[in-house]
Amino acid sequence: MKRIAFILLSHAAVFSAGGCNPSEVIYKEHVVYNFTSEGFLMPDVLQAVGRADVTRLDAGLDAGRSRCLEEALYNAKNRALRVMLHTNLYIPGGGDSFDADYPVNFSEGEYIRANVDFSDILSKGYIALQDSRSSSSCFVVFRIMEKDLIKKIKRVDLTFCVNYVNYKIMGSFGRTKNYCKK
């Protein structure tokens, strides 16, 4: 997953510097019609996938599916927030899975606070795909597309202290980012 993101990010940097655009075929294959990858598909595109189970507590199949999709969207937005927090705090990651790429799983309270801090960016997101055909589960693909998205995420000043250890937070040129306002 990181390899695809790196290729797309490096191609986007080369193309944007030269005034060119990436191939329409590559763009459609790796961004527009890609509903499985998570994280930054390109510097201006963030995608997260949320899954949930259909609960039998709701009255009727339609209510159960509706509730499932709401929970899947909530989970997808939290995964998008996880990517945003890692980006904002310069937390390194790397691997072949979402958990390896974004290793810190923040607390519920931190996600609630991040939701407020990143609300301007989150409000520009939309559901790119949703599926509730299964009688036991559903999923939602949440996508945010905006010019200079990574820069905008990095510029957000968090209004809370992120509490975790064992992760080195480094800004550009070796400066440690101030992530805890006192």
Topology at a glance:
Layout: H1 2-18, H2 24-32, E1 39-42, E2 45-53, H3 61-88, H4 98-101, H5 108-117, H6 119-122, E3 125-131, E4 137-145, H7 149-155
Antiparallel strand pairs: 1-2, 2-4, 3-4
Textual characterization of the structure:
The protein has one domain. The radius of gyration is 17 Å and the shape is globular. The protein has helices at residues 2-18, 24-32, 61-88, 98-101, 108-117, 119-122, 149-155, and strands at residues 39-42, 45-53, 125-131, 137-145. The chain is α+β, with helices and mostly antiparallel strands and 182 residues long. It is built from seven helices and four strands, in the order H-H-E-E-H-H-H-H-E-E-H. The protein starts with a helix and ends in a 27-residue tail after the last helix. Helices cover 43% and strands 16% of the residues. The chain has a four-stranded antiparallel sheet with strand order 1-2-4-3.
Reading side by side through the largest sheet, how are the strands ordered? 1-2-4-3
- Our Rg estimate from Cα atoms comes to 17 Å
What profile does the largest beta sheet have?
A: 4 strands, antiparallel
Helix percent band: 40-55%
Number of strands: 4
Q: What's the SSE pattern?
A: HHEEHHHHEEH
Shape: globular
| Total DSSP helices | 7
Strand content: 15-25%
- Taking pLDDT < 50 over at least 5 consecutive residues as the criterion, the unreliable ranges are 2-17, 171-176
